């Protein structure tokens, strides 16, 4: 799967792409990530501004339509393939596991990261991206949101997780609307806190029943909305 990330701060992604599962997935060529610096498409070549004041007044600056549209079109043309375009904004549709599963089947995603007060509206009018938010809070820019999406999508791609780390049991994964049950590893006891006996009983049926009951209890206590949603 290929991700193209359009940003004013491409360096933000560098360390992130070499670490952990994502680093391995890139090394194994299961995933490609390309960052594109919007400034490379700035109309002026001296200071390379890509932002300007909003017409009608108001605080802050907007990212201009010209470099953004030119960048996206040039990147798609070079790859000879159009991408599913995603624009990160707090005004977008809320990202969730279902959306991650859908994105994971797309083959190619173009992620547009806003900064300042966001993009000129004509970016949306012309490029018609899907607008996506990672939650009801405001970040300094879309880069962290783009990393969240890449992270959640990559772990769903075939071959990225080993069998032993399958994403099927994840909270929120397809058909699973319960939170995960608690897990324990060695030692069996620490400062008077013991591992529940059932987990060391060897009784697999009892263990499965205990885990299911714990998942249900956790979900009721912490996220009862998940039990009500369709
Ligand atoms: N940019 C700023 N805040 C954001 C959010 N909550 N989700 C996606 N992109 C953003």
Explain how this protein is built:
The chain is built from 7 helices and 9 strands. By secondary structure, the protein is of the alpha/beta class. It folds into 2 domains: 2-154, 3-Layer(aba) Sandwich (Alpha/beta knot); 177-228, Trp Operon Repressor, Chain A (Orthogonal Bundle). The strands form 3 sheets. The protein has a 5-stranded parallel sheet, with helices on both faces. The protein has a two-stranded antiparallel ribbon with strand order 3-4. A two-stranded antiparallel ribbon has the order 8-9. A hairpin with a 2-residue loop joins β8 (189-190) and β9. It starts with a strand and ends with a helix. The mean pLDDT is 93. Adenine (ADE) is lined by residues 88-90, 114, 133-135, 137-139, 142, 145.
């Amino acid at each position: 799967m290929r991700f193209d990330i359009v940003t004013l701060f491409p360096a933000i992604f560098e360390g992130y792409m070499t670490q952990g599962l994502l680093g391995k997935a890139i090394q194994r060529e299961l995933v490609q990530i390309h960052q594109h610096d919007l400034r490379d498409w700035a109309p002026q070549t001296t200071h390379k501004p890509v932002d300007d004041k909003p017409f009608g007044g108001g605080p802050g600056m907007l990212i201009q339509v010209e470099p953004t549209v030119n960048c996206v079109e040039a990147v798609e043309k070079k790859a000879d393939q159009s991408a599913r375009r995603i624009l990160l904004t707090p005004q977008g549709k809320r990202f969730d596991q279902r959306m991650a599963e859908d994105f994971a089947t797309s083959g190619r995603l173009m992620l547009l990261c806003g900064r300042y007060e966001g993009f000129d509206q004509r970016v949306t009018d012309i490029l018609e991206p899907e607008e996506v938010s990672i939650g009801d809070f405001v970040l300094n820019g879309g880069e962290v949101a783009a990393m969240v999406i890449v992270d959640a999508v990559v772990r769903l791609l075939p071959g990225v997780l080993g069998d032993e780390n399958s994403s099927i049991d994840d909270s929120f994964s397809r058909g699973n609307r319960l939170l995960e049950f608690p897990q324990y590893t060695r030692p069996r006891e620490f400062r008077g806190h013991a591992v529940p006996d059932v987990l060391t009983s060897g009784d697999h049926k009892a263990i499965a029943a205990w885990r299911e009951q714990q998942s249900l209890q956790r979900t009721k206590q912490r996220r009862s909305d998940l039990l009500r949603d369709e």
